[in-house]
Amino acid sequence: MFQDISPHVLNIQYSVKAVQGSDFAVIIKNGQILMLHDKNEVKVPTITVMRQHYDIAIDQANYLLSIENNNFFAFDVELVEKDQFTFEDLNVLRTLEPKWIAFAMATATHLANWYLQNRFCGHCAHQLVKATDERKLVCPNCGMEVFPKISPVIIVGVRNDDRLLLTKYAQGYDRFALIAGFVEIGETLEDAVRREVYEETGLEVKNIRYYKSQPWAFSQSVLMGFFADVTGENTYTTEEYHSDEAELALAKWFDRQEIPADDTTLSLTWSMIAAFRNGEVK
User: Of 28, 47, 82, 172, whose CA is between 20 and 30 Å from 278?
Assistant: First the structure.
């Protein structure tokens, strides 16, 4: 999966670090990241290269994380595209090489977005300041503390013996996927599984069991995968379901040997689908 970068280890602990020219620069504009095009290859720009093309002040650097002695710093500046630099959608990171840089950059972007989205206190509108002891923002006026946002999301592989229910969204991502959704306030993960399956298909499930998790910076989330069996009260003479047409274009049962393949298992969704198709999930 996307986070499988061993033997490389991501260090996300907050600390104060001095900026080096070889460190990586994270600059976001309208949800896109500034990337360097070098000899038909897309790269994360280093601070040295950035300063050859842009006027950015080192004292504006905001330390995010490190990996293998490579530090990532965010800059809260307004820049325009020029020379080999263009703003790219976050999905460019899915194919970035090496993979450990791609995962580190995605995680750094998650943190950088959090800083950009929390400039002012939501209670009194005073400007927030960075804490010096841990990763948080503090309001010097009312004392409110703001911590990095991570939204919990459940992904469900709904089973009927050797069949798996695959879905297609009504808009956006156009490949097959599994049922998924954000966890509501006051809701257990298991209740979120039951609710999302019922809302999207009208089916009820039992035997809910945890599979794996995945940090997913593209939606500032942590994904939690579950497999569940449909209840015995349901019948499955219908191949397709259209319970929530506003969200799903299609929900269809596939026999294990007929489940379509995908060219990547970077996502938890396709790791789960591949595990079921290959008989790793009984």
Answer: 172
